[in-house]
């Protein structure tokens, strides 16, 4: 099972996004928070957890303390305890929308989308305002997509779009879902609106690049991957996808360079090994291709994407199968 490993800054920003300006801190808990923040920045997660416990002991209604404790424990790879922190928070604050949302996100990261959907529904039920409700609905749409209820995800996102037509998560997720509900012509519309809302939003450019790649408009796709990489030079998926577009245009050396760099940045991406295997086959470097085909299989390509690597292995790597 793949779990999310988040930094302190990541979950703090997440919490601010969820509350959208709601007052979570008072003068009495600022000292605790400052300690936790500094310890987390220093990588002293265990000590930070202890400060969270002190904060909770001083006031069981310190919602931020339960949330921060949970994410610190995720960083320590103590996933059951991370879930337990949110359970404790909800035991003391049974109608708190933020805690249901955070627990739903944790379940979502574990692939437990039925549990996540239950919590998102409760987060929506207890939301204190429409902004908080909208944030939880966006997360709910993601779990709907994960269980392949794309129509359900699409309908939720349309509600979110009606509430705030500039929200980047809503626009980006709508673009992704549109392809699944038979509205591919709307994909560039929503992605363009994402970029209009935030010209530095890397996923918008990446998804536009992938959209045009799927339409076999490879040169156009490269321009969007280039833009994503000009903003974030460590974007592994952009290198991988740009490499595939270069491969389709016959630039094998450029393609290989991009995919190699993608694998350096993200060695667990099965699709990158698939792409490099295709490049090596075209270069007539079959032994290297077979190594990458096996690596793609080892990293779960078949479970995620189907039997393409098995078929290539049977065609080119017979000695591997004897």
Notable characteristics:
322 residues; mainly alpha; Serine Threonine Protein Phosphatase 5, Tetratricopeptide repeat; disordered N terminus
Characterise the protein shown here:
- It is a single chain.
- The protein is mainly α and 322 residues long.
- It has a domain at 1-94: Serine Threonine Protein Phosphatase 5, Tetratricopeptide repeat.
- It has 20 helices and no strands.
- The protein has helices at residues 8-19, 27-41, 45-58, 63-75, 79-92, 97-109, 113-126, 130-146, 150-163, 168-180, 187-197, 202-214, 218-231, 236-248, 252-265, 270-282, 286-298, 301-305, 308-316, 318-321.
- Helix 4 (63-75) packs antiparallel against helix 5 and helix 7 (113-126) runs antiparallel to helix 8.
- The radius of gyration is 22 Å and the shape is globular.
- It starts with 7 loop residues before the first helix and ends with a helix.
- The CATH class designation of the domain at 1-94 is Mainly Alpha
Name given to the CATH architecture of the domain at 1-94: Alpha Horseshoe
Strand content: under 5%
Instruction: List low-pLDDT spans.
Output: 1-27
**What is the β-strand count?**
0
- SSE arrangement, N to C: HHHHHHHHHHHHHHHHHHHH
Mean pLDDT: 88
Q: What coarse outline follows from CA principal-axis ratios?
A: globular
Q: Work out the helix count.
A: 20
Report the structural category.
mainly alpha
Q: Report the biggest beta sheet as strand number plus sense, adding barrel if it closes.
A: none
Give the % helix. over 70%
Tell me the CATH topology of the domain at 1-94. Answer: Serine Threonine Protein Phosphatase 5, Tetratricopeptide repeat
Amino-to-carboxy terminus distance:
31 Å
What Rg do the Cα atoms give?
22 Å
């Amino acid at each position: 099972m793949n779990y999310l490993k988040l930094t302190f800054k990541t979950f703090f920003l997440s919490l601010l996004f969820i509350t959208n300006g709601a007052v979570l801190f008072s003068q009495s808990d600022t000292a605790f928070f400052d300690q936790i923040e500094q310890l987390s920045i220093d990588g002293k997660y265990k000590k930070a957890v202890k400060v969270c416990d002190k904060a909770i002991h001083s006031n069981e209604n310190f919602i931020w303390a339960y949330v921060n404790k949970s994410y610190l424990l995720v960083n320590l790879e103590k996933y059951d305890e991370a879930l337990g922190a949110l359970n404790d928070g909800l035991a003391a604050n049974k109608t708190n929308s933020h805690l249901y949302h955070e627990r739903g996100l944790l379940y979502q990261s574990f692939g437990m989308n039925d549990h996540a959907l239950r919590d998102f529904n409760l987060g929506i039920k207890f939301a204190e305002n429409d902004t908080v409700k909208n944030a939880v609905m966006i997360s709910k749409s993601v779990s709907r997509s994960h269980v392949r209820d794309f129509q359900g995800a699409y309908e939720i996102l349309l509600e979110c779009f009606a509430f705030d037509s500039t929200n980047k998560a809503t626009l980006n997720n709508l673009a992704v879902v549109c392809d699944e509900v038979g509205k591919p012509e709307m994909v560039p519309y929503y992605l363009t609106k994402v970029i209009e809302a935030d010209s530095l939003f890397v996923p918008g450019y990446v998804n536009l690049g992938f959209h045009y790649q799927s339409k076999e408009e490879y040169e156009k796709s490269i321009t969007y991957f280039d833009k994503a990489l000009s903003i974030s030079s460590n974007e592994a998926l952009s290198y991988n996808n740009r490499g595939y577009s270069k491969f389709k245009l016959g630039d094998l050396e450029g393609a290989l360079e991009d995919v190699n760099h993608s694998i350096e940045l993200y060695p667990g991406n099965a699709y990158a090994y698939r792409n490099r295997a295709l490049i090596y086959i075209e270069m007539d470097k079959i032994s290297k291709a077979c190594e990458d085909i096996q690596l793609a299989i080892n990293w779960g390509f078949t479970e995620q994407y189907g039997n393409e690597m098995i078929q290539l292995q049977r065609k080119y790597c017979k000695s591997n199968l004897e």
